[in-house]
Write a structure and sequence with these properties.
about 325 residues, Alpha-D-Glucose-1,6-Bisphosphate, Chain A, domain 3, 6-stranded mixed sheet
């Protein structure tokens, strides 16, 4: 929705209704309300929304854990690490510059339309904006700041050694993701070539019909890869989940083909995912799969953690794969 449509008042009411419905075994054992992790993509335009969400969580007596600017995978990793009751991410998953979206988790499980989110929507619709929401506790919950990047990057950091001096074009407008990657690459000889992002991104209707999502203009990205004589190019979406790869010739690599390459290196089969994030999560958890590609092309991972899609994990694995020898990406893919 447009930022103006999600007012701080509405964001606060959503946060209250969400926090009231959370159940955390760890919190119940200690007789306290659940903690909720709050992350954002770092845009100044959403600062008032974030503040209202934090206030709503604390109003219910729950602890708000503010991790500041982050990616969605980093937020999910923090929820898991802290065994939080849930999480909220305020970001721009659709990619349009003046939109804002909210992503929710109950414990480590991402929520999609239906179920709890529909319950919250119905409650808000049936209740006037000026109505007083029943407060579950008289105590105002605490607020804690948490440095989430260190936890998230600790899982990826071991891969960043003995890499080939690979050069790749990166099209990514998400400042937290770029910062993570620059941190990881500090001690390796790989080179990031920033893309001209204005030429590389277009907007297309979502498959679900609920708005638009940004996708790469692979022709433009491919042209930049070829012009720079880079080893490959990658577009990463604004929340750090989606990605698209082009090879050294500038040709787009299908998500299923990329997943097959990664699956071979991990000795793991690829699970076909679903369209909605919650459906893919549940399917991976039930089948104990470690790798999946969903219907929107997101690659999901679940090695020693709950499933979540992670573009930076995909980039990391691709760098490692291409460092095994001096073959070009297209040649490696042709070996499949």
């Amino acid at each position: 929705m447009a930022i103006n449509d999600l007012s701080p008042g509405l964001a606060r009411r959503i946060a209250v209704e969400f926090a009231k419905r959370l159940v955390s075994p760890a919190a119940q054992a200690e007789n306290r309300p659940p903690a909720v992790v709050v992350g954002s993509d770092g845009r100044l335009a959403t600062a008032a929304i974030i503040a209202a969400i934090v206030e709503g969580i604390r109003w219910t007596g729950g602890e708000a854990i503010d991790i500041g600017p982050a990616s969605v995978p980093c937020t999910a990793r923090t929820i898991q690490h802290l065994a939080a009751g849930g999480g909220v991410f305020v970001g721009n998953s659709g990619g349009a510059p003046h939109t804002v979206g909210l992503k929710f988790w109950t414990q480590a499980e991402p929520l999609s339309r239906g179920g709890l989110l529909d319950d919250i929507a119905a409650s808000l619709q049936n209740q006037p904006a000026e109505a007083t929401i029943d407060r579950p506790t008289r105590a105002f919950g605490p607020l804690r700041r948490f440095a989430a990047a260190d936890i998230y990057l600790s899982d990826l950091r071991p891969a960043y050694h003995a890499l080939r001096p690979l050069r790749f074009v990166l099209d990514c407008a998400a400042k937290p993701v770029v910062a993570y990657l620059e941190d990881l690459m500090r001690n390796v000889a790989c080179q990031i070539i920033p893309a001209e992002t204005a030429e590389c991104v277009r907007h297309t209707p979502c498959a679900a019909g609920n708005g638009t999502r940004s996708v790469p203009d692979t022709l433009s990205l491919g042209e930049q890869v070829a012009a720079a004589q880079a080893h490959f190019g990658m577009w990463i979406g604004d929340d750090g989940e989606d990605c698209q790869v082009v090879d050294e010739r500038g040709q787009a690599v299908e998500a299923e083909r990329l997943a097959g390459l990664i699956a071979e290196s991990l000795a793991s089969p690829v699970l076909p995912g679903e369209e909605l994030r919650q459906q893919t999560f549940l399917r991976m958890r039930e089948s104990r799969a470690t790798l999946a590609v969903d219907r929107t092309g997101r690659l999901w991972y679940a090695a020693d953690h709950p499933p979540w899609p992670d573009a930076l994990q995909t980039l990391t694995l691709l760098l490692v794969l291409l460092s095994h020898n001096d073959r070009a990406l297209s040649a490696v893919l042709n070996l499949l």
